[in-house]
């Protein structure tokens, strides 16, 4: 399939999934997965990062619209979109020449695992810290981050295991 | 000049990043400030419309439950009617009597409900077309739900009682000891009543209702019951924990209360302030 078309479909699919399905799960009353950040993981690695930053901002804003959270999702998503490159350099030792050939599913699972976990926890922590917006209940922020991150990661890895043929 | 161009060249992604983050931050701040967030909210046309479609299909799954609560509420209202006029349980529909009422009730359906963050909002399917404005009380048969925040033509957003910015005047039932109801963001069943006088005879299990000392809520709408008292009275604000009658995670039909005297009262109070 055409790469751009694939990304557009993925964009709307992930927003719909997040807003209409995942936001209503509320496991044990408060745990929600935030799977829409998978968009940032799947976005092709390029030297030009304008597209990634803009689309992840739009993604976050769209989720914010539906969840009435101001700009919390947008903030967290743009943050991990910007620092994605840094973590790719840290975990996968990639140079600029390697960018066009970088594919998540062709990398060793251990490295992918570390990379996804780091970005997910970073995103969830920012998300809950800003939606709480005070230092009261800070233990709640940490707990929410942990539980939701576990939920998101389970969904992400099982989802990518099921939907990629050659895994 | 070349230095500046070089600077922008080098840090272009970082500058874009900072710019987007600043936009997000400003949106977060405006959302927290009461009534300023006209832009990002679920009361706009597109989001409200989508939520309504989803809600319409989901409604079939909970019809039985909703019917039961409606029957229960009807039963309560009939009992109330019976106790007030001895002549029997039918409504007197006198138009001139109706127009003298201080409050009018508008019914609406909740199409989006949040209760798991620290600043929660709900969306209802009634807006300016049905006379919804900002700062109107929202209740259901069991008790208080929130205050309307902003409205578009067809939808309105409610600032839930489970929002750290919400302050509601509340009192002990059948007394005039009143305090302020707020929420600490922890448990969605429990809110906090603060600043109630220390001499007030509060016991665990006492009912808390609205105090009627604001222009938003009428008097004596139930809120919840006292579930924990600060026995040692160590805290300055004398915090009392109130368990809500409403299950905020399971709401469907609500009433919005319009206060006809609000403008008059506010006008009078503003004269006093000056």
Task: Using brief descriptors, characterize the structure shown.
heterodimer; A: mainly alpha; B: about 270 residues; Thrombin, subunit H; 2 domains; six-stranded antiparallel β-barrel; 5 helices
Describe the 3D structure.
The complex is a heterodimer of chains A (167) and B (274). Chain A is mainly alpha-helical and 167 residues long. Chain A has one domain (3-163). Chain A contains 6 helices and no strands. The longest helix of chain A has 26 residues, at 138-163. The mean pLDDT of chain A is 86. With 274 residues, chain B is α+β, with helices and mostly antiparallel strands. Chain B has 2 domains: 45-161 and 251-258, Thrombin, subunit H (Beta Barrel), CATH 2.40.10.340; 168-244, Thrombin, subunit H, CATH 2.40.10. In chain B, 31% of the residues lie in helices and 27% in strands. Chain B is built from 5 helices and 12 strands. Residues 94-99 of chain B have low confidence and may be disordered. Classes of the chains: A mainly alpha (167), B alpha+beta (274). The interface between A and B is large, with 34 and 42 residues.
